[in-house]
Description:
This protein is α+β, with helices and mostly antiparallel strands. The protein contains 7 helices and 12 strands. It has helices spanning about 30-35, 70-80, 135-150, 160-170, 180-190, 195-200, 210-220, and strands at about 10-15, 20-25, 55-60, 65-70, 85-90, 95-100, 105, 110-115, 120-125, 150-155, 225, 240. It has a 4-stranded antiparallel sheet, covered by helices on one side. A 4-stranded mixed sheet has the order 5-8-9-10, sandwiched between helices. A two-stranded antiparallel sheet has the order 3-4. Helix 5 crosses helix 7 (about 210-220). The radius of gyration is 21 Å and the shape is elongated.
Amino acid sequence: MSDTVLPASVQVSVRQADESVVEDLEWASAPLDLLRNAQPWRTFRWYKGQQHYSGTYWAATVRDHVIYESRLELARLLFADFALDVRHVVAQPFLLKAVIEDRLRRHIPDYLLLTDDGPVVVDVKPRHRLERPKVAFTFAWTRAAVASRGWRYEVWSEPNPHELENVRFLAGYRRRWLFDPDLLDGLRACDLEGLSLSEAFRLMPDCPRPLVKSAVLHLLWSGHVMTELDRPLSPGHVLRRAA
């Protein structure tokens, strides 16, 4: 296999909401709206003794369920849902095909993220598998195809464990409709800059403390305030306004 993988032509196939398939469009000109509304290319595979962990996650970003096929994919999905610049998420968005070195190559990326800075195509793979020749080759030609459209390509592996646990914890507070709008507005009107979490939890003394605590954590999830997430969350964590 050559070190530089530059497919001359790439086609894309997309599954639509009615389960019909739009096949073999030229990748360079495939409409973004078609890809944005794609249904997952694969269905779940369930069998005795399977090694992967599949499921669905309700993403606040799209207000709907998004599928994942492994715990690592779920972790990437959590981070995408938490990111303020991600506006839409599509799982297994399309099938790419390219003829490289006289062979037909196929690949289904794990996610398509639509962000404020443009589309991002994501593959998720454990770090110890990235050096396998077949994986490296597939990701190389996929990266070249994605870059040909001026889009970003990301290979995502295991995150910082503390950051993952914090994001997973905060995801429990992602459902906005569960929180009193007046309480949220009251907290937004407070100057939270420089307060510790424990101090923020004691705001709004006329409201039950558990409700205030949950609302503060929702504001942290939704990006109204920020804090360091590379160590376990504690009452001493200091809040700052989002930039």
